[in-house]
Specification:
With 285 residues, this protein is an alpha/beta fold. It contains 11 helices and 11 strands.
Length: 285
């Protein structure tokens, strides 16, 4: 049965329409993709435009999930790319396809709280000068469902600009931004990792204003290889390259470049057993 879209008014404030933007690749698990899509289609304030970019050829099982939602939901619009192009290019294809000014990002293996979009769009309707909005996330064990940690982010625009000199001030899984602003900075770069952080800094450097809500709006799935991916050489190299690029832009100073890069090298060389503990102790709220 197809779910239709309807306008919503909260506390005498009419919420703006929004597009959901998600991408998926062949390595995703079908049950995770289904759970993620369901969490966005079951919002207390539903979308009228759900764009899913398929990054290259998918597995048969993933295709079946995509086909089901395309056939049963009028708002669901998959874009099927013939080859894998990476996260940045996927995001740009999706941004171009989104029909609304507000774009709600979502990862294909995470789960949104039911009121995520209502809370986010209400805040943006109350503050139309804001260009980007995020919130807290709860990291949960994919096998047990147990909440492991809460990742908090700076709340005000001033705090976000300061924090962004060293780290991403937004949880990407919770990000909502204006399409016009994203297009004005050229969207995402074609880099393989840390593209979300670089995109956010480009927006901020261009004068974009941001806030974070002090509520958990997305559940972030943690699997056995999450921390391992963060400490591999490819991720470390991209981490350094993006921060060097931000330093060359003039957004951060040399110390802002040295401190997080030193910490990342420390993560890279430390024993695997300590990686998760370090992240929880120093990089989570």
């Amino acid at each position: 049965m197809k779910k239709g879209w309807c306008a919503m008014v909260v506390k005498n404030v009419e919420l703006p329409e929004y597009s959901v933007l998600m991408s998926v690749y062949a390595g995703e698990k079908p049950e995770h993709l289904r759970a993620s899509i369901e969490s966005m289609l079951s919002q207390t304030y539903v979308t009228n435009d759900f764009v899913l970019v398929c990054d290259g050829k998918l597995t048969k099982e993933l295709d079946e999930v995509v086909d089901y939602y395309e056939e049963n939901y009028e708002c669901f619009h998959p874009i099927r790319l013939k080859e894998n192009v990476g996260t940045g290019r996927c995001a740009n294809r999706g941004i171009d396809a989104c029909k609304n000014e507000y774009i709600v990002k979502m990862d294909s293996d995470d789960i949104a709280k039911p009121d995520r979009c209502e809370r986010s769009l209400y805040a943006l309707a109350k503050h139309p000068e804001i260009d980007m909005l995020g919130a807290y996330i709860d990291e949960f064990d994919s096998q047990t469902g147990e909440v492991i940690a809460t990742k908090k982010t700076p709340l005000t625009n001033k705090e976000i600009h300061k924090y962004a000199r060293r780290r991403n001030p937004f949880n990407n899984q919770t990000l909502v931004y204006k399409k016009s602003r994203a297009l004005s900075v050229g969207g995402y770069s074609n880099i393989k990792r840390c593209e979300d952080y670089e995109f956010v800094v480009k927006m901020l450097a261009d004068g974009a204003r941001g806030i974070n809500l002090d509520k958990t709006l997305v559940m972030y799935r943690v699997t056995a290889n999450n921390y391992e991916r963060r400490r591999n050489w490819a991720n470390t190299k991209s981490f350094v390259n993006v921060r060097w690029k931000i330093f060359r832009m003039g957004y951060s100073n040399l110390w802002d470049f040295i401190v997080p890069c030193t910490f990342q090298f420390f993560i890279f060389i430390m024993p695997k057993s300590l990686t998760g503990k370090i992240y929880k102790r120093f990089l989570r709220g």
